[in-house]
């Protein structure tokens, strides 16, 4: 199946799931990272003719001494010296985290980048189609579990404002979605809001 992105909703869509006063511009010197927005088609209860019903792979990160410990995220990570491109980074990291086979992943295109101030990462998301089925092999050193979540969940109108303040820190309110036991917010939510608008506005076409 061939899919085409005609235009990106960009910052307008990202802002729908961004916390107030969040820095949006990527500063010079930010560390480069890439993630996969991996779509799986043909799952049980997933209508092929309704793109909003297609599933996106989300992971729960393992606990570690870092700002993204235990968070719900898209598979991916930091760019390494041997990576030939940001697409290579996204594929390598996804393989390490959930055992994806690059030969069974079809790149669709790149979504708008997102800056994460807490870790100084410029995150570059790549939309792709998974042709390997819905089962993955989570690496327990990096991933606790995973879910395939329908795109319709990522409608900003379905989000709620939650307090993500850490102990002894300023109040941090941000929009989020709840899907079963996954709380989806932050940069991941901003990326998925753009995906939702991409589909909802007809900017993602099947060729």
Explain what this protein looks like in three dimensions.
- This protein is globular.
- Helices cover about 15% and strands about 35% of the residues.
- The longest helix is centred in the C-terminal third of the chain and has 15 residues, at about 185-200.
- The chain is built from three helices and 13 strands, in the order E-H-E-E-E-E-H-E-E-E-E-E-E-E-H-E.
- Strands 2, 3, 4, 5, 6, 7, 8 and 9 form an eight-stranded mixed β-sheet that branches. The protein has a three-stranded antiparallel β-sheet with strand order 10-11-12.
- It has one domain: Nucleoside Triphosphate Pyrophosphohydrolase (Alpha-Beta Complex), CATH 3.90.79.10.
Poorly predicted runs: none
Can you tell me the overall shape? globular
CATH names the topology as Nucleoside Triphosphate Pyrophosphohydrolase
Q: Summarize the amount of helix as a percent range.
A: 10-25%
Main β-sheet, in a few words?
8 strands, mixed
The SSE string, one letter per element, is EHEEEEHEEEEEEEHE
Return the CATH architecture: Alpha-Beta Complex
Helices and strands in order:
Elements lengths: L2 E3 L5 H4 L16 E10 L14 E7 L10 E2 L2 E3 L7 H13 L6 E6 L3 E3 L4 E10 L12 E8 L9 E4 L9 E7 L2 E3 L1 H15 L3 E3 L1
Parallel strand pairs: 2-8
Antiparallel strand pairs: 1-13, 2-3, 2-5, 3-4, 3-9, 6-8, 7-8, 10-11, 11-12
Quick structural gist:
The protein has helices at residues 11-14, 86-98, 186-200; strands at 3-5, 31-40, 55-61, 72-73, 76-78, 105-110, 114-116, 121-130, 143-150, 160-163, 173-179, 182-184, 204-206. The protein is of the alpha+beta class and 207 residues long.
């Amino acid at each position: 199946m061939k899919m085409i992105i005609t235009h990106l909703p960009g910052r307008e869509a990202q802002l729908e799931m961004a916390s107030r006063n969040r820095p949006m511009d990527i500063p010079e010197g930010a560390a480069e990272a890439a993630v996969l927005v991996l779509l799986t088609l043909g799952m049980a209860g997933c209508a092929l003719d309704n793109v909003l019903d297609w599933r996106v792979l989300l992971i729960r990160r393992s606990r570690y001494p870092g700002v993204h410990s235990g968070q719900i995220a898209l598979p991916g990570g930091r760019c390494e010296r041997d990576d030939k491109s940001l697409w290579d980074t996204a594929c390598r990291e996804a393989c390490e985290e959930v055992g994806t086979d690059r030969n069974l992943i079809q790149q669709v295109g790149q979504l708008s980048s997102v800056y994460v101030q807490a870790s100084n990462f410029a995150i570059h998301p790549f939309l792709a189609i998974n042709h390997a089925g819905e089962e993955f092999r989570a690496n327990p050193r990096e991933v606790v579990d995973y879910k395939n979540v329908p795109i319709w969940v990522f409608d900003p109108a379905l989000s709620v404002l939650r307090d993500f303040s850490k102990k002894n820190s300023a109040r941090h309110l941000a929009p989020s979605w709840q899907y079963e036991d996954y709380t989806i917010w932050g940069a991941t939510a901003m990326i998925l809001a753009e995906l939702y608008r991409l589909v909802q506005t007809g900017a993602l076409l099947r060729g």
